[in-house]
What does this fold into?
Amino acid sequence: MLVKVWMGMQNVAPTEGTPVDIKANAAEDNPVSRGSERLANSRVGVGVLSMGESTVVPIPLEAIIMPLMIAWPRRAWSIAAAALVGCLIGSSIFYVLGNLLFEPVVQPLLDRFGLQQSYESTLNELSQGGYFWAVFMISLGPAPLQLATLGAGASELGFPTFFAAILVSRSIRYLGLALLCNLLGERIRRYRFPRWATFTFAFAFLVAFWLVFSFLI
It folds into this structure.
């Protein structure tokens, strides 16, 4: 008799008071959520994205890693570290490319894509101000980093100073973002925004931030 009662209790459906959020679980079980979680767990993936952002992809990496840090705030620091390492590797590659292969490779590409004027403007910034602070401000702000890294290499400016400027500026960007998301991520998650809404908010926030930064600088 006791066995039958116990088996019957196991088959009882959850009542209204049962803490099972079926809709929330279903909302999180979609390709965007699964892909985001895989990326948040992949330091190599974040590093490769950051390397691409510092070389060939002119899109701020924060638009991708900020939602990841909000969704998984305990992983924010490792995501920021992976992004920093990837950026340093990509920037160093473009520095070497500009230093060794500017005339046969870089110059034709600048002419092909109509970037010669932007490149010369970047070179002018590097030559006018202090080298460290010029690279620092370009890397910290929304300006394309690729032209600065190529220009630094082609101008044969010191690599240690270049590397230090990228390291400090991108540490401020990525580690500062990790600190912010680590402090506020859990509070934001309580509202259970869809992932697409989080990505949209992050992108809009970054656009507004870069516009203000550009205006002030």
